[in-house]
Amino acid sequence: MSLTQVLESVLALLVLGAATWTIAARSAFAASVGFVSYGLLLALVWVQLAAVDVALTEAAIGSGLTGVLLLGAVATLRGTEAHTVRGPGLALRITAGICCALVSAALAAVVLTLPESGPTLAPEAMAALPATGVGNPVTGVLMAFRALDTLLEKVVLVLALIGVWSLAPDRCWGGNPGLEHRLSVDGVLPFLARTLPPIGVLLGIHLMWTGADHPGGAFQGGTVLAAMWLVVMMAGVRDAPAIREQWVRLALVSGPIVFVAVGLAGVLTAGAFLAYPVGIAKPLILLIEVPMLLTIALALGLLVAGPPERTADAP
Amino acid sequence: MSTVTLFGLCAAALVGLGLYGALTHPQPLRKLVAFNLLGSGVFLLFGVIARRGAWNTAGGDPVPHALVITGMVVAFAATALAVGLLLRLHKEGGEATLDPSVAAGSADERRGS
Questions:
Q1: For the domain that residue B47 is a member of, what is the CATH number?
Q2: CB of A58 closer than 8 Å to CB of A42
Q3: B94 in A contact zone (CB under 8 Å)
Q4: Domain residues for B56?
Q5: Per-residue pLDDT for A313 more than 60?
Q6: I need a labelling partner for A86 at 20 to 30 A (CA). Which of A3, A49, B37, B97 fits?
Q7: Which chain A residues are within 8 Å of B35, Cβ to Cβ?
Q8: Taking the mean position of all CA atoms in its chain, how far away is CA B65?
Q9: CB-CB under 8 Å, A112 with B84
Q10: Is any Cβ of chain A less than 8 angstroms from the Cβ of B38?
């Protein structure tokens, strides 16, 4: 057994341990913290599978942003936790356990009996990559070969945000999302909220820019920007913008609109929706990515901030 | 055991664990965490199965990687919506439970007090 194999086995055990903790922990707080560390360990697994772009996304969104969302909910729901501990009986739990073990066993059997090589589109993707002018194959797939998926996913983000906003009580509609965060004069959070963003914003934009040729991209960059914005909001340095603001709504839909516009232009110039004319694929991809970065950062930040909960001032 | 097999078995166990948590936890928030665990297990299984085809190309198969990235963002959006619904439920009834008897009981309490 080589050193790599030993390390991979330890990593797999750690992931399973963190996952078990997440399910078995007594309090929702402990489970959420477990989920965050589980996500970070899982990111290492993705690195081992040579999927660095996926690892960055898992660490940023799967672990980081989901963690903030869960911990926020835990803090609000803390009082109700004691009331709802009545779970299913032992017999039901054992039955569920056996059924879930069977599902795992079936999946494990599939993994063990997989043929050596499977179908793949990797050679085709790598062969067509130079035409896009992008060096990172994952970005090439996201922005060119499967651009429709990426466009629809932007739409899903905006739709989910509309869903969250629509949970606001009538009197709060149009107001600022979330509860008011008071600015404490001293403390670590306000300090971080003032010193981290300049570095974080630069890092986010760099991740988007470098995503053309190296691991990274608009998703990961947008998540870093959203995280910086959340620190600023949570520290109370700047309030979240009121959702009736015209600029918020315009910025939110700018990503999908530019995407659709470039796609429709492709019908005229290259013969298909979302097709890029030869030679200017790279500038077009950048044209799509910049508003997309803005949409992702805004939508992710506002999804975590939640629906408006304060009575809106008269407009 | 190869890297692919090892993490494939790990993913299979994660799916089972997540499913168990989603089925047996009484609190909706815990169900949500478990469901996310289940989802990440499915993503990992997908990545592992796709890894075989790309074994000979350096850097792995970009197509499944891109699909998983899209999937993670959509999973986050769905989780945020679910948390929003749960917090609204809590605001309405003072409880965060899917058990109708508990929810009705707390509503009666508040009406009585």
A1: 1.10.287.3510
A2: yes
A3: yes
A4: 3-112
A5: no
A6: B37
A7: none
A8: 19
A9: no
A10: no
